[in-house]
Amino acid sequence: MILPIPILTKTTEAILGPASSLLTLLSLSLSVCGEKMSESKKTPPRNLAENWFRFFQYDPEHDKPGHVRDILLIIATLIATITFQAGVNPPGGIWQDNEKGHAAGRAIYASHHIAFSMFLISNTFAFSTSLLVIVCLTYRFPLHFEICVATASMMVTYASAIFAVTPHESVKFRYVLFAGSLPVICRCIVQLWGRRNRKSKQPPNSENQQ
Questions:
Q1: Which of 10, 18, 138, 199 lies in the 20 to 30 Å Cα band around 42?
Q2: How far is C-alpha 42 from the chain's CA centre?
């Protein structure tokens, strides 16, 4: 017997509590992606086992830009939700006492300095990248300024949360700050490089003709 998704969601909420919101978002994402795929005009190949990768690739002739944007927004939102949750509640939980050289409210995982640093840097990089994708895909949308304000506020919340649970001697926060800024820096470099290439491909006397 297969339970419907709402029943599974309610059952998981009773067991997992707040963590069940990830399951709700995932189930909603899968249903929306399924609707977008069902609207596609692609015909599946005869041997899907061998050509499945090419079949699910983006095809400008069959895939509408609006559908692709919606799917990318769902994926970016899912990644942002997971990484934010992982940063605020790090693996292993937090200490509940001030004994044996640790402080209450600090991450237990931080006792493994190298592993925790890699986790925090990678998680911050993924979180920042997903927020950048959300901001870029909603550009020129209604209330885009409010989306940017909410995104910036969430980044500040994330930064204050990891600063609160991380012992200052275990992680050098300049690396975390660099990981959070790297996606924006890379996007700016790509945009400037693309604009420079477009200008270089223009005929030298095109401006004079205009």
A1: 138
A2: 28
Give the separation between CA 99 and CA 110, rounded to whole angstroms.
15
| Both tokens assigned to 183 | 């996606």
Q: How far apart are CA 85 and CA 22, in angstroms?
A: 9
Contact 27, 6 (CB under 8 A): no
20 vs 12: CA distance, rounded Å: 6
Domain assignment present for residue 16? The answer is: no
- Per-residue pLDDT of 103-116, as tens digits, reads 888 888 888 888 99
DSSP track, 14-83? HHHGGGHHHHHHHHHHHHHHHHHHHH--PPPPS-HHHHHHHHTS--TTTS-HHHHHHHHHHHHHHHHHHH
Full residue range of the structural domain in which residue 186 is found: 22-38+62-92+105-200
In a domain, 17, yes or no: no
In a domain, 208, yes or no: no
Domain count, the chain: 1
Express each pLDDT in 177-186 by its tens digit.
999 999 999 9
